[in-house]
Amino acid sequence: MKKTTLPVGMHDKLFKRARVTYKIERDISDFLMSQGFNRIETPTLEHFEVFSDTITKNNYNFFDKSGELLTLRPDITSQIGRVIASTQVETPIKFSYSGKVFKYNEEMRGLMNEHTQAGIEIVGYPAKEAVYEAIASAKASLDKADIPSYQFEFSHAGILQTIFEDLNLPVAAEKELDVAVKDKNITQLNELTKKYPSEFDDFLKNLPYLFGESHQVLNEARKLVKNEAILAALTDLEELLEQVSDILPESNIDLA
């Protein structure tokens, strides 16, 4: 053995830590299967297109012997979509899964590039029923794992979908806006609203601040937008909070 150090971002789990991690994964997986979720296991290596249309620097990419570009999975959710699209799985159906995922973090931050991800996918059921079951299952899993403190944070995909579709930006500008939203880059968002003015200017410029206690964020967001589709999405969130209030009295929202 000529090298005994680990690649950046990789860590050995020894003894107690390994035992506790294994127990948490096993207990959550057993619980989800007992709730009617079909266990599914997907390969660690996939064609890179399963996860992205372009090569990203955050993923571990490799060429196989045939020259095909493969990726160590950065998440499992995308693989579930591939399974549904490529097999004869009949819906409605519920999946549960757990496994290793890999993603580069910035060096020198001491973060791990290898994690264990566990989750569920509920496909083909009425949306409100599925969302409630997903939240209830997540909370029950965290409680079963004896996690002493956690916070649920919600958003609504329809909000940013509406903005991007209505703006119809050039491809480069759309990517720039996407990054600015994810990074909560206030300066960049201000510059983009000046360059591409729209009815969403006030909302976009304040988007980095629209996070925190759920009802407070919803009230602030409604003051900044008049678009009916976005207002409907905010109402959906409010109805969801009411629906889950029996199991989740406190939660956060981050609209970015």
> Strand-residue fraction?
15-25%
Question: What's the SSE pattern?
Answer: HEEEEHEEHEHHHHEHHE
Identify the CATH homologous superfamily of the largest domain. Answer: Bira Bifunctional Protein, Domain 2
Identify low-pLDDT runs. Answer: none
Biggest sheet statistics: 3 strands, mixed
Rg, nearest Å: 21 Å
CATH class assignment of the largest domain = Alpha Beta
Helix count?
A: 9
Beta-strand segment tally:
9
State the end-to-end distance: 47 Å
Molecular structure report:
The chain is an alpha/beta fold. It folds into 2 domains: 15-150, 2-Layer Sandwich (BirA Bifunctional Protein, domain 2); 154-254, no CATH class. The chain has helices at residues 15-34, 77-86, 127-144, 157-167, 171-183, 186-195, 201-206, 214-222, 228-243; strands at 38-39, 45-47, 60-63, 69-72, 93-102, 114-123, 153-154, 211-213, 252-254. The mean pLDDT is 95.
